[in-house]
Amino acid sequence: MAKVFIPTPLRKFTDQQSDIAIAGATVSEILEQLVERFPSLKQYLITSDGQLPPFINVFVGEEDIRNLQRMETEVSSDTLVSIIPAIAGGSEGVILSKKELARYDRHITIPEFGLEGQIKLKSSKVLVIGSGGLGSPLLLYLAAAGVGHIGIVDFDSVQDSNLHRQVLFGEEEVGMPKVDAAKKKLESLNPYITIKVYKERFSFKNALSLVEEYDVVADGTDNFPTRYLVNDVCVLKGKTNIYASIFQFEGQVSVFNFKDRDGNIGPNYRDLYESPPPLGLVPSCAEGGVLGVLPGIIGSMQALEVIKVITGVGQPLSGKLFTFDALSFSSRTFMLKKNPSNPLTGKTSIEPSLFDYEHFCGFHNHEIKEITAEEFRCLMGSGEDYQLVDVREAHEYYANNLSGILIPMGKILNCSHQIRRDVKVIIHCKAGGRSARAIRSLEEEKGYENLYNLKGGIEAVMACKLENA
Amino acid sequence: MNIRLFGITKDIIGAESLQVPNDLSIHTVRDLKHWLYAKYPDIKSLKALAVAVDHGYAEDGDKLSPGNEIALIPPVSGG
Fold first, then answer.
1. How many Å apart are CA B66 and CA B60, to the nearest integer?
2. Partners of residue B77 in chain A, C-beta under 8 Å
3. Is A281:A347 a contact under the CB 8 Å cutoff?
4. Among A19, A351, A402, B39, which residue's Cβ finds the most Cβ atoms within 10 Å?
5. Do the Cβ atoms of A221 and A302 come closer than 8 Å?
6. A370-467 has which fold?
7. Which residues between 366 and 405 in chain A have a beta carbon less than 8 angstroms from any beta carbon of chain B?
């Protein structure tokens, strides 16, 4: 009787037995006996033409049967026959069901990808931060591809103005928390994966613990403080950060903090941009706009890089910044290198103030007073005297306004004499970013104390009107 | 020297690309930055700006010559 060693992933088909005594003179006979006793093993051990599948190796003693007589290799009694599936480290115990094998057939068929690649996807854990424009295609493709464990961090709810690009959501989900809508959609797309959601802001408080349990992080956030935080946490925790970002017609993609096979770690975001631009200078999608299909293109590339990093297939975009310009349909790839003055990995040591993300990005220089769209509606109807100031540009104002006085952001200090000090002054822009900056300048430079930022800007007021219509 | 502009630098400069007159004494990336800062103060206030020379990330001390293809790549944050 020969003894057959069953690897962990296949033990669920052998009632958890690892060593099974089987009579037979050749490998072929032994495997036939084995699958007769445990029929569900057959799909993993023997192809329809009686051969071993390419992802299974069999050893007799210490010799690979491919170096002997293959299936006809003789087996003397008391010899150990070991079945060794081609599975990378960390994937131990992960196995694909028959339905999953059928689902991912077109992946498994690719020679460079194969069952091994698919099993790596199933074993992997990916944290997607932000489920908006980039997050939509990213999550759809990761889920469809069979990434086994996906975490999603987003505190926001679906808004009507998201739907032109955030293809993960539909009209019926407007108002729903994004993570809940995303989970529902992705689970219906692929029941073989698990989705874990975090309905919270990715912040200094939770960043380390959130990232900890994942192998790879994909950054699809929409603001600089969070982008720097994601980068820094990935560097601290040794996680690869698959980065993508968009603006109007342009997109950027890179793979940061990637550890290659030799253990060398590639550049990170701070090698590219040591510190962020001041608040308001580089507009967000809400302020600057974005062509809806652009995050579809860029987010799909981000998904591609996540899949490549997990499976080890191909060369990831580490040490390179890919840029795409949709207007001219041109792309360029720039080589990156490590920056000696990178505060995280460079020669100088880390200053703690660098981790006060919202502060260094100019967000909370000091607290400013806010008023919500709903409160603003009440104020309008209350008869109380107030002044409304619109700090957007003239073309935005003439397209749509709330009848406030127009003082574009760039002229706010020079025209401050038009801003009253004796009543409540509400300052607004499109989404609340520029007006916050205007208020800080006016408070710091001109000593104003009666200014309120309209939270969410004119967009929030319009949304509020729609809801109440 | 021709500079290809990306992202917000297009808006700041008001063009898709920028031609640097050859008669200026711009020999390094640092010289180029100072020339841009003087001409376009908003470029200076960006603080974060990557300069690429011939498809590679360049440092301030790197030398420039007339045939170089230069790109200004500011950060973008949209998602």
1. 17
2. 221-224, 227, 245, 247, 282, 284
3. no
4. A402
5. no
6. Oxidized Rhodanese; domain 1 (3.40.250)
7. none
Cα gap A356→A279, rounded to integer Å? 14
Please state, in angstroms and rounded to a whole number, the distance separating the CA atoms of residues A268 and A293.
27
Chain A interface includes B14 (CB < 8 A): no
Q: Which residues of B touch A133 (CB under 8 A)?
A: 78-79
What are the residue ranges spanned by the domains of chain A?
A: 2-90, 124-360, 370-467
State both tokens at A89.
């480290």
Let me know: does A243 contact A317? Beta carbons within 8 Å: no
CB distance A323 to B6 below 8 Å: yes
Tell me the nearest-neighbour CA distance from B77 into chain A, angstroms: 5
ipTM score of complex: 0.82
Q: How far is A402 from chain B (nearest CA, A)?
A: 26
pLDDT tens-digit series, residues A247-301: 989 999 999 999 998 999 999 999 999 888 876 677 777 777 889 999 999 999 9
Give dist(CA A179, CA A153) in Å, integer. Answer: 7
Nearest Cα neighbor of A44 from A90, A8, A80, A72 is A8
Q: Using alpha carbons, select from A401, A220, A186, A212 the residue that is nearest to residue A295.
A: A220
We find that the CATH architecture of domain A124-360 is 3-Layer(aba) Sandwich (3.40)
Measured between alpha carbons, how far is B16 from B8 in angstroms, rounded to an integer? 11
Q: Which residue of A has its CA nearest to B8?
A: A282
Q: Do B77 and A334 touch (CB under 8 A)?
A: no
Hey, what long-range contacts does B55-61 have (CB within 8 A, 24 or more apart)?
Answer: B55/A332, B55/A333, B55/A334, B55/A335, B56/A334, B56/A335, B56/A337, B57/A271, B57/A272, B57/A321, B57/A334, B57/A335, B57/A336, B57/A337, B58/B29, B59/A339, B59/B29, B60/B28, B60/B29, B60/B30, B60/B33, B61/B28, B61/B29, B61/B30
Determine contact: A281 vs chain B, CB below 8 A.
Answer: yes
Second CATH level (architecture) for the domain A2-90: Roll (3.10)
Judge: A282–B8 Cβ closer than 8 Å, yes or no.
yes
Residues of B in contact with A130 (CB under 8 A): 79
Q: What is the pLDDT of residues A153-162, one digit of tens each?
A: 999 999 999 9
**A222 and chain B: CB distance < 8 Å anywhere?**
yes
Distance CA B34, CA B56 (A): 20
Is the confidence at residue A363, as pLDDT, over 60?
Answer: no
- Provide the chain B residues 35-74 that lie in CB contact (below 8 A) with chain A: 42, 45-50, 52, 55-57, 59, 71, 73-74
Domains identified in chain B and CATH numbers:
6-15+25-73 (3.10.20.30)
Highest mean predicted confidence (pLDDT) among A79-83, A445-449, B31-35: B31-35
Q: 0.80 cut: is pTM over it? A: no
Residue A378: active-site member = no
Q: Is A285 labeled as catalytic in the residue annotation?
A: yes
Q: Tokens in use for A367?
A: 């607290």
What part of A 132-151 touches B (C-beta under 8 Å)? 132-135
